[in-house]
Design goal:
It is built from 9 helices and 20 strands. By secondary structure, it is α/β, with parallel strands linked by helices.
Length: 414
């Protein structure tokens, strides 16, 4: 109950910050943490009708941002109803038709629209016949377009219609879908070898080998995409690792390591997230550094403007939310790693690792095993054990992916 209350409190304060205009315009997406608060609603700008040669019609709604929507078909009389969630239109919408097809029989007879529930926008297409309707939201350089494909009800789906479905973006409950992007950070590299085992095994090589195996598994999974922070033996600073993950709009950051300890008897895997103390110091750092544009803006939130106190609060809340999500994926990873290796501790650990200090990307550091332990060093060098570790990490990510989709569906319009 306390966790739910904290989530609600954060949502209220972030929303208040948006109203006060102190955090700038902040974007959102379906499975991404790059949003601290929702911005204003979408604007439905225009409607156009395009008729194809096979008797079908496509209705294109131009929007200034991504929206959730609901579409349904009704009879007596025949009509198609599209509800745009948290959307408005500044002018009266008119059907713009492709002039080359004006002499053909029209499926859409008329368009009506009205505001619903003070914040949603309903469009009703009066039809000349009973139709099947399918929709998808497209993202282009010129903005967003909701495409509604209409086909006669008694016509079987042909190859042309299948091609149209392949061409349009995948949609989950009316939200533009993009793969959940996983940034895989192979620890150390180049002049920084990391820990070195008794037999000379270098942590930087083991981490990269596991990272590459993990990437292959992720890229084979629908809805997931992997990005390697480093794909070879070279050095990248810790801050640049975070910067690269944010450049790729990563939804999750996984840093892979192989632990070492003077006590060579120690064995087992462990998973770390950023500590609360580390989060507080990081918030102060980001707010203090005003000269670097990368560190001025977080997911579109301009920290230069508005009330500095509220900006600080917004950043603190965002970091707390990111840590909550980090803890969730860390638990999933720990559970899966426990099936292939001993666990050093059965709880998620927290520390001030610099590489975990991204304010808007859930981040975890995985210590796969102790390279300082002779038995674990030997196992880490084998393709079989590396594959097992990569599979365990992948399964943990899949758990998080499924849970994220579930959270998103709970908020969908019904």
């Amino acid at each position: 109950m306390k966790k739910i209350t904290n989530h609600k409190r954060r949502g209220f304060v972030l929303g208040l910050g948006r109203v006060l205009g102190v955090a700038g315009v902040i974007g959102t997406s379906a499975l991404t943490p790059h949003a601290f608060a929702k911005g204003r609603g979408a604007n439905l700008k225009s409607v156009a009708v395009h008729k194809s040669t096979n008797g079908k019609e496509r209705i294109l709604f131009a929007l200034d941002k991504s929206v959730r929507h609901k579409i349904s078909t009704l009879t007596s009389p025949d009509r198609v109803v599209i509800d745009f969630i948290d959307t408005s239109s500044k002018g009266k919408l008119k059907l713009g038709r492709n002039s080359a097809n004006n002499n053909q029989q029209k499926m859409v007879k008329n368009l009506r629209h009205a505001t619903r529930n003070t914040k949603d926008f309903r469009v009703v297409l009066d039809m000349n016949e009973k139709v099947k309707a399918a929709s998808a939201l497209k993202s282009t350089e010129n903005g967003y377009f909701l495409e509604v494909a209409l086909s006669p009800y008694n016509t079987k789906q042909n190859s042309a219609q299948k091609e149209i479905k392949k061409a349009i973006s995948a949609v989950t409950a009316g939200v533009v879908s993009r793969p959940m992007t996983i940034a895989i950070d192979a620890g150390h590299g180049g002049r920084d070898p990391g820990a070195i085992g008794k037999k000379g095994t270098k942590e930087k090589h083991i981490a990269l080998q596991i990272a590459k195996r993990l990437k292959k598994k992720i890229d084979r999974q629908p809805g997931l995409k992997a990005v390697l922070i480093r794909d070879g033996d070279y050095y990248i600073s810790l801050r640049k690792r975070i910067k690269k993950a944010r450049k790729h709009r990563a939804d999750l950051f996984i840093s892979i390591h192989a632990d070492a300890n003077p006590d060579t008897r120690l064995t087992g895997s462990s998973v770390y997230i950023l500590s609360q103390k580390g989060a507080s110091s990081e918030a102060a750092k980001w707010l203090a550094n005003r000269e670097n544009s990368y560190e001025d803006k977080l997911a579109g939130a301009d920290l230069h403007r508005g009330n500095k106190v509220v900006s600080s609060l917004l950043l603190d809340l965002s970091l707390e939310d990111t840590i909550d999500k980090s803890h969730e994926i860390a638990r999933d990873l720990l559970k899966e790693l426990g099936s292939v290796n001993n666990l050093l501790r059965r709880r998620v650990e927290s520390a001030g690792f610099v590489v975990l200090k991204s304010p808007d990307i859930p981040s975890v550091l995985v210590e796969t095993a102790f390279i300082s332990n002779a038995r674990e060093e030997k196992r880490l060098k084998t393709a079989r054990h590396q594959e097992k570790l990569a599979t365990a990490i992948f399964k943990g990510i899949r758990r998080y992916q499924v849970a994220s989709i579930g959270r998103e569906s709970d908020t969908q319009y019904s």
